């Protein structure tokens, strides 16, 4: 359940620290979602290598390949939002 996910120590109550940690995680995920949407320029619901190159333009081609390797769980050459969030947040 959502409650047990937030209650990290299993105390059956949510401490201030647990609450702050969860809200920080949610804010990060919201920011990642916005970043993903802004960079999914073709609206396909997935980031292609070309779209990754645009936001990683200052980095090398190796960085694009590293991003794909880290996030593209099914190795289809694209990164879905779900893959992106898992790859970035671990």
From TrEMBL:
Span of the signal peptide: none
Single GO MF descriptor: calcium ion binding
Domain EF-hand stretches: 27-62
Keywords per UniProt: Calcium
Domain of life: Eukaryota
PROSITE patterns per the UniProt record, alphabetical: EF_HAND_1, EF_HAND_2
Name of one Pfam family that matches: EF-hand_7
Family annotation (InterPro entries): EF-hand-dom_pair (IPR011992), EF_Hand_1_Ca_BS (IPR018247), EF_hand_dom (IPR002048)
Protein name according to UniProt: EF-hand domain-containing protein
Species this chain originates from: Magallana gigas
Lineage: Eukaryota, Metazoa, Spiralia, Lophotrochozoa, Mollusca
């Amino acid at each position: 359940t959502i409650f047990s996910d937030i209650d990290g120590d299993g105390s059956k109550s949510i401490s201030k620290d647990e609450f702050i940690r969860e809200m920080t995680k949610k804010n990060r995920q919201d920011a990642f979602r916005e970043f993903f949407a802004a960079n999914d320029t073709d609206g396909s619901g997935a980031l292609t290598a070309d779209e990754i190159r645009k936001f990683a333009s200052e980095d090398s081609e190796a960085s694009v390949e590293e991003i794909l390797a880290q996030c593209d769980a099914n190795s289809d050459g694209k990164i879905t939002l779900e893959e992106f969030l898992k790859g970035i947040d671990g």
